[in-house]
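Incident log entry.

Two folding requests arrived from the same account within the same minute. Monitoring flagged them as a possible duplicate submission, but the sequences differ. Recording both here for audit purposes.

Request one:
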Amino acid sequence: MIKQKRMRKDPPPDQYFSMFLRQVRAESDVSAADLAEGLMDISQLSRIESAERPVCKTMRNRMLERLGVAPEMYENLLRNEDYEEWECQHKILCAIDRRDFPEAVRLIEEYEALESSDSKVKQQFCLMMRAELLKLQGAERTEIARHYEEAVRLTVPGVEQVYVKTKLLSALEVNTVLEYEYYRESASDFVFKCRFWMDYVKESLYDELSKAKIYPKIVHYYFREMMGKSTAMSLSVMEQALRICDEAMELLRNTGRAFYLVELLEHRGKILADLINWLVENGKMQEIKKYEVTFRENTELEEVLKGLYVAYDVPIYMQDCT
């Protein structure tokens, strides 16, 4: 009798993910409690890491993002239900991008009715999309803030404690907290909060792509708030502001992304113009030339980008949700 050679079976996709998740968590020295907080029980995480419990793509993404890994960098197969969820989200984003509000609302309601293995992350997405619709329609700030607060507390229940005890958050969760902080009623300390989140991202586990998704936006919000105030900036503050802008732009350059690039160029141009004026007024003529060259290069790049966006019918400014 001829013995048949046993075929070696590849582990199921969830096992590959479980192995990868365990490895990244161990290398990053992140506790199970920190990774699971606000997302699931530690026992559920343990079962996921043991490949005993299947996990949907949206939750896989969230866990990887918390560990600082951009989901685009991890290749894995989608189940039919995962693809269905992705397709629903994609259609919603496209409808909002087109500003087709009735269609966006219909699609959100359709997605909310869809059965999901992870309703918490799905609810968060829907609330954020509803908040984006309210922003585009000029709704009251308190109503927008209410949606963002509800979205935040789904996975970051003790959001106020973040500023006292650092929590492990994904770039998407940082984005949601940032929007909530901007729209809530007592947002007088928003500039301070932006500085906190800039430091948080710089010191986080995030890879460069994850940082590029959120850091430029925080910098944009920071300068938008700062420059909206009438107080003139001192020389040291202007120089520091220029460094912050340059850091954000360098991050975009390194990752080949353009998130909020036009906005950053506009802020940078304003800072450089103010800096040159200050140097002229204070007779620092020998230092002006290098800043004038930088200002000219900044203006040229800004004009080129705006021209390209207009030529290819691409919105010049970033839309937060897309």
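Request two (distinct sequence, not a duplicate):
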Amino acid sequence: MTRGLIALLFFSVVLGAQTPDAKPVRLAIAGLVHGHVSGFLRSAKLRKDVEIVGVFDPDAGLTASYAKANGFAPEILFQNLGTMLDRVHPEAVATFTNTSDHAMVVGACAARKIAVMMEKPLAVNTTQARAIQRAAAASGIAVMVNYETTWYKSHGEIWKLIKQQNAAGEIRRMVAMDGHQGPKEINVQPEFLAWLTDPVKNGGGALFDFGCYGANLMTWMMGDQRPVAVTAIAQTNKPGIYAKVDDEATILVQYPKAQGVIQASWNWPYSRKDFEVYGEKGYAIATGGDGLRVRLPGQRAEETRKPGELPAAESDSISYLTGMARGKFKPSGLNSLENNVIVVEILQAARDSVRTGKKVTIASQSVAVE
């Protein structure tokens, strides 16, 4: 090997090591009151492609508690969001505030050209949702909404069967069943329970907390088509625990040639996130992350299938966030703002339907009560 070739290889390695993608994504955490932050931090600590460079929450005691549990240095802890963003210069922000504060976080990040991920749903009303959308568009930042169900292999397989292969014909009915025994019953963190049971900060109770999953998946399957109308009922079966919000909700979503039924509950006897799609000629039923049952044309009986793997960059929230932050792709499908603004329209229409006892029609850009 010649000296010239050796030198070329040496400089290629050195320069390659200095490329932006070779360094971990500088990630900041905005808010600690959403209980999903614990699992996110556990996953992030095991990875080499992200570095937590800042942690913000206005509650100093909560910040100190998470710092102790995760070994965060005092200099990366902040009680002011703007100060954190200006000092640590993150490439991306993962948001774990209450839902009502999402617009505030996106506004701060948009002003500084920082990509944002937030836990579902996008917002508590359409005014906030569209403000987020406008801020992202004006600044050019990427914004994604994270749902646990986005990363289910079973849902990826349903998309292939129903949408890509058209194996069951045109969609006619969808059913989503999401929820658990109740946030207090499963012992969520006190700071999480406090805002989940606040109708302003959460938007509602189970209707928003778990209704968003079905609305997200149905909007995805319908190609980001706005529904024609929404009808919903909600009630509180446990007023001693959930005095201000619903704990049981059913949402009917009407499309021109299809219907969706969303069953959102804090009263299930066990946790579930199931999604059923029925076409003209067959169906697919997802039961959790890997569970999938199908019956398609030519089959005499239902069969269980093993879903295929998701693409590596789309297999979990951190991989997706890092790719988005580095500009490798823009949020699409279940993560996208286009989808999630419609999700909030459905949820707001459902809340209005519960309040009025009437069906709520959804116009092209607005929600109106009939």
